[in-house]
Amino acid sequence: xxxxxxxxxxxxxxxxxxxxxxxxxxxxxxxxxxxxxxxxxxxxxxxxxxxxxxxxxxxxxxxxxxxxxxxxxxxxxxxxxxxxxxxxxxxxxxxxxxxxxxxxxxxxxxxxxxxxxxxxxxxxxxxxxxxxxxxxxxxxxxxxxxxxxxxxxxxxxxxxxxxxxxxxxxxxxxxxxxxxxxxxxxxxxxxxxxxxxxxxxxxxxxxxxxxxxxxxxxxxxxxxxxxxxxxxxxxxxxxxxxxxxxxxxxxxxxxxxxxxxxxxxxxxxxxxxxxxxxxxxxxxxxxxxxxxxxxxxxxxxxxxxxxxxxxxxxxxxxxxxxxxxxxxxxxxxxxxxxxxxxxxxxxxxxxxxxxxxxxxxxxxxxxxxxxxxxxxxxxxxxxxxxxxxxxxxxxxxxxxxxxxxxxxxxxxxxxxxxxxxxxxxxxxxxxxxxxxxxxxxxxxxxxxxxxxxxxxxxxxxxxxxxxxxxxxxxxxxxxx
Length: 480
Ligand code: ACM
Ligand code: ZN
Prior knowledge:
alpha/beta; 18 helices; globular
């Protein structure tokens, strides 16, 4: 068996054997296989054909893996991806990763034919992208002194030059970079830099614990909108691709309920509630970016108001009943959906909770299937302190998502057999991959218990209280 991941759509094995794959002829021609598809012929020499450079690139990635299989039989491969969006998200806010560390992962993404690098650049615990008009975002917002009393500062940001370097590095590997500027929630680092952004304008620190914070961007003040437009102007210039991710997740509305500006915006615009206010806020951002030729992505829990207008793609992560319903409703509006289910694709959770098998076997609901544009595995880094841990959590689980995003015919047993060779490839690239990716029940449960005990100790003070209070206030406000 040829040990290839993702497995190609069609392989025909012929008589004969190739000892090396170094003599390659490349042809750009009409293949009918789309931009990323290719044909690969291995006989006494290697011929690759594609309609576009991207297809030739993927043929070469297949060859790179086949070189680990030598000698290989003479063969013909015809291949093209199932989805146009095959993604990996890296959170560089909670912990900071250097340009070199990121490039090392980009090489892996390319090898597994992933074509979207979703770069999560802002959150409560750190603002990581240079914005010329608002220098305090990086002067103040890019550092926190400690996390839950650990006495360890975390700091760092990417200059515009460094961002361009990553964009260029990705471009050479046919990977698009999708920046995420999370708003209106997860905004503490921005508010710490510019307190006028919040409802209360109280001075706060960059968050030193994890969780969900009620101090979010005020959706009733012109100054907030101006700030967001200005930031997006610079982001849109810096990232040449179509998509910009604006988060929208976990925006706790506690302060909005009491804020005169937010309440005035609700009244003046005939909105029903605070969820619709988020939709109103996001619609403004979407329309602003749409007229610059950009598309927006939002996490599904940010779309509960059901009133976002414009060109927006849904990022499905939250799997509660009401958030599943959001995705179904958006599908009916004919919006594209990116699949990142929390319980199957979140790489930050231990292998005991999300074993490789579970990741590989995730099934998309048939009622949204038609709208799915792709799959993406996110790595949030609250508990990922360095690149060794990043790799341990990411690999080989990311390969399961990469294969499901590319291959039409999923086959978990075949995947596991083919995976047996990838230790060699990971070792060659000095990747600290996890070897016990389907741990036995006892070890798995221990891993999970250890993870959650550690995580609980790092949750920011007042998190649960704020959530409870928000729900109580909303219930009182809207009882009739
Ligand atoms: C998310 O995990 N907050 C999108
Ligand atoms: Zn407000």
